[in-house]
Write a structure and sequence with these properties.
Elements (H helix, E strand, L loop, with lengths): L4 E6 L3 E5 L6 E6 L11 E4 L5 E5 L4 E5 L5 E6 L6 E6 L5 E6 L3 E6 L7 E4 L4 E6 L5 E6 L3 E6 L8 E4 L6 E6 L5 E6 L4 E5 L10 E3 L7 E6 L5 E6 L4 E6 L6 E7 L6 E6 L5 E6 L3 E7 L6 E7 L4 E7 L4
Antiparallel strand pairs: 1-2, 1-28, 2-3, 4-5, 5-6, 6-7, 8-9, 9-10, 10-11, 12-13, 13-14, 14-15, 16-17, 17-18, 18-19, 20-21, 21-22, 22-23, 24-25, 25-26, 26-27
Amino acid sequence: MSNVILATASYDRTIKFWSYSDQKIIHQFEYCSQKQTSFVNKIEVSHDKQYLGTAGSATINLYDLNDKYKLKHVYDGYKSNVTSVGFKQNNGWIYASSEDGSIKVHDLAMQGVQKTFNSKEPVNQVVLHPNEVELISADQAGNVKIWDLRKEQTYVKKIALSPEIGIRSVSICANAQFYSAVDSSGQLFIQKLSKIDDPQSLQKIEKAHDDYILKCQISPLATSLATCSADKTIKIWGINTSSQKFELKQTLYGHTKWVWDISYGCDGEFLFSCSSDKFAKLWKLDDETQQVSCINFKHDGIVNCLAFNDINI
């Protein structure tokens, strides 16, 4: 676990980078002053570990981790909270979603906007398809939408999953076989991308959690997926080889308040989580024995988002 980036952002207005070996702070900085009321909603580290992107109240900040964590760019043009941020694999551009209904693409080399899509509904999250020419969004009107970066304006596909509630999070597996999504009522949805026009292909787990589900993520090897919730738990779901359906494999207990964010490591062996209980936890998972261990990292305030990159470049 050398050369691992474990980063957390908190309502204590700091972003901290942690050492895996001794849980000490490697570096920290304030992302806003004590007089400001804006908070960071999401952070993400680029594939090559050079950049940190932070999604704030109406801007994205880009920090260069190889240049003393220096602020490189501020991307504005948003009218409301920026809810998610991510990077193209070779660092050509950064993408983000916002509660103002927009999905934007920005060039890493300069400030400004390369492309804007208008979802018309507040967008909770956007992720990049492995083909890197499509984006997949989750919005508060209950839709998952697919956007083609080669085309203008409108989405190319809309999947109405939870119209009365809204989709909180969406994830797509690395081999692009299927996606998962979750809503605020505790429902989990899984569907093969090749069958999105077939309603019968949609697997819906109606009571995946007892409260809001805040995030879902498919493991890098696509053998499991994780969800976290306001019910204070993290759940690991795996494929039943007989039915080819996802079912609950394991529930992780340890956080004492809402679990806001989760992220798998590159091989699915580790899962990073953070919570309103002011702790982030790095869980070591064992599929065969179902044994779990974790180490803790503490802030002075709610820890609402994180970034985890243990790729050996």
